[in-house]
């Protein structure tokens, strides 16, 4: 894909990919009702339903890694179409299943294909834009998913009252629609065929990259915090005497904040911050917002806390993915993003167990205070990550002097610093 100039407009393929992801996100609500479907339609216990959901979460880890490898070997567009089509088949299988083993099998199949399209879609953005615009592009991807999520809640509310199986049908249709759009409007990419440029492939060893592993660890902790908000907030509100359904309103406010605050990312003060400084600031805002949840006993207070942590989320998401993309060697963007992305699979297994146990034995205040403390630890941790990244920049430039923002903005055609 053709790159945009530094500071210029994002290229058309990026906007088309964002639009396709909005359509896909409109149907991405069925998984929240998988355990309910298993419990109500097949009479399974909550524990059994939880095991099936955990099996799905576990399957997403190899799915993410496979998506990164396929993106770099098979091509970004082909991998996205393959993953979305596989999701549609699995979703329709769940909707049509008439036994618990069949539902479990299709749930695991869904997990195995569920993350295939994430690394190539993220890598496609990295391919299309230069380093200086990656933060903005990934932040817009986060905003696009937020916009789709707002519509998804409304669709789920309507179809869910009719028949839960139709949620999976709608999700499958959104996956197919997204696949068709990607196949029709995005340009094909042609990675090096097998056997070509072996010296480049030999350099792509993400699991041996210390900086990437540090990003994976911190990303897993962040994903744990984020999923606690998504999964535990309704239960937390109920324990505070509020309506669990108010969590939907809070999630909508979060999405609106992420979309409305996009222009803030282009302010000179934020653009001048290093990646570590911006991520640390994001963690700090997350911590403040979660402290708000720990002390909130009313909906207005919870709304303010939601706006604060959403601003932190806005600062972090684009910076983190852009940083990982910049760490990757030529031809390895998909695999680097895939390794970083398994943080969500790991957190997806741990978050439900951790959140429910803390709520049950210590209460909502302890849960949100603990998550806020974890965010503070992650913010301080950026002080130790920054020197490592600075040393990485110096080695990439073949010199010993620090890399200035102006120098960092001058990139080669492959998006790596000169």
TrEMBL record:
Q: What's the chief localization of this chain?
A: membrane
Q: Which residues form the signal peptide?
A: none
Q: Give start and end of each Major facilitator superfamily (MFS) profile domain.
A: 13-390
Tell me what this protein is called.
Answer: MFS transporter
Keywords assigned by UniProt? Cell membrane, Membrane, Transmembrane, Transmembrane helix, Transport
Matches recorded under InterPro entries: MFS (IPR011701), MFS_dom (IPR020846), MFS_trans_sf (IPR036259), MFS_Transporters (IPR050171), Sugar_transporter_CS (IPR005829)
A Pfam family (short name) is MFS_1
The organism's taxonomy opens as: Bacteria, Bacillati, Actinomycetota, Actinomycetes, Kitasatosporales
- Give the stretches traversing the membrane: 12-38, 44-66, 78-94, 100-117, 138-160, 166-186, 207-227, 247-265, 277-296, 302-324, 336-354, 366-390
Q: PANTHER family from the entry?
A: MULTIDRUG RESISTANCE PROTEIN MDTH, RESISTANCE PROTEIN MDTM, PUTATIVE-RELATED-RELATED
Q: Where is this region: Disordered?
A: 396-418
Q: How does it sit in the membrane?
A: Multi-pass membrane protein
Indicate where this protein resides in the cell: Cell membrane
């Amino acid at each position: 894909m053709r790159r945009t100039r530094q500071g210029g407009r994002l290229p058309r393929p990026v906007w088309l990919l964002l639009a396709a992801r909005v359509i896909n996100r409109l149907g991405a609500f069925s998984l929240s009702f998988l355990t309910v479907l298993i419990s109500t339609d097949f009479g399974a216990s909550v524990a059994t339903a939880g095991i099936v959901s955990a099996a799905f979460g576990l399957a997403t880890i190899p799915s993410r890694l496979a998506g990164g490898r396929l993106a770099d070997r098979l091509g970004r567009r082909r991998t996205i179409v393959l993953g979305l089509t596989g999701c549609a088949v699995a979703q329709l299988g769940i909707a049509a299943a008439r036994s618990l083993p069949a539902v479990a099998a299709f749930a695991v199949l869904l997990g195995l294909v569920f993350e295939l399209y994430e690394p190539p879609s993220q890598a496609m953005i990295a391919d299309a834009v230069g380093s200086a615009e990656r933060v903005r592009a990934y932040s817009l991807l986060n905003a696009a998913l937020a916009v789709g999520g707002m519509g998804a809640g409304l669709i789920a509310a309507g179809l869910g009252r009719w028949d839960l199986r139709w949620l999976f049908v709608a999700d499958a249709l959104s996956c197919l629609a997204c696949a068709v759009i990607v196949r029709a409007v995005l340009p094909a990419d042609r990675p090096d065929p097998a056997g070509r440029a072996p010296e480049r492939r030999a350099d792509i060893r993400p699991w041996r990259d210390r900086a990437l592993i540090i990003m994976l660890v911190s990303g897993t902790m962040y994903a744990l915090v984020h999923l606690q908000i998504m999964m535990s907030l309704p239960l937390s509100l109920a324990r505070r005497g509020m309506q669990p359904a108010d969590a939907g309103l809070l999630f909508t406010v979060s999405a609106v904040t992420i979309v409305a605050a996009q222009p803030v990312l282009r302010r000179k003060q934020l653009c001048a911050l290093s990646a570590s400084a911006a991520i640390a600031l994001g963690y700090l805002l997350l911590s403040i917002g979660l402290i708000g949840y720990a002390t909130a006993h009313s909906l207005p207070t919870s709304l303010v806390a939601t706006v604060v942590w959403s601003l932190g989320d806005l600062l972090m998401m684009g910076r983190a993915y852009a940083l990982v993309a910049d760490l990757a060697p030529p031809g390895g963007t998909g695999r680097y993003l895939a390794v970083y992305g398994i943080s969500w699979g790991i957190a997806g297994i741990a978050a439900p167990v951790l959140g429910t146990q803390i709520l049950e034995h210590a209460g909502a205040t302890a849960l949100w205070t603990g998550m806020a403390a974890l965010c503070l630890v992650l913010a301080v941790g950026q002080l130790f990550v920054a020197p490592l990244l600075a040393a990485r920049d110096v080695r990439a430039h073949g010199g010993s002097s620090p890399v200035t923002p102006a120098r960092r903005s001058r990139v080669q055609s492959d998006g790596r610093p000169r």
